[in-house]
Design goal:
alpha+beta; single chain
Length: 86
Amino acid sequence: MDTLQAITPRQVIEHVQELATADYGPIGIVNFEFIPLANGPGVKANWDLAFRVAPADTDTLNYSRIQTIQRAIAEAQAAFPRVRWP
C-alpha cells in the first residue's frame, strides 16, 4: 500500500501559490499547467507543474519571482509527490 499522501491538482496549485506568496509576496497572475508523469515502481512523483506568467503582468521577467515559483513547485512536489487525478 502506498503510504505517500495524495492531494488533488487544485490543492497542489493552492499550496504552490501559498509557498511562493510567503517567500516572495504577491506573485501576480500565473497560469499553471499540470504534466502527468508515469506511475510505477521507483517513480517518486506522478506529476510536474509548468507555469507561465500572464503577458499583461509588468513583473513578468522578474528572475527572483520565477525562481521563487520554481522553488515552491519543488517543495510541493517533495511534500506531495502523488496527485489524485479527478
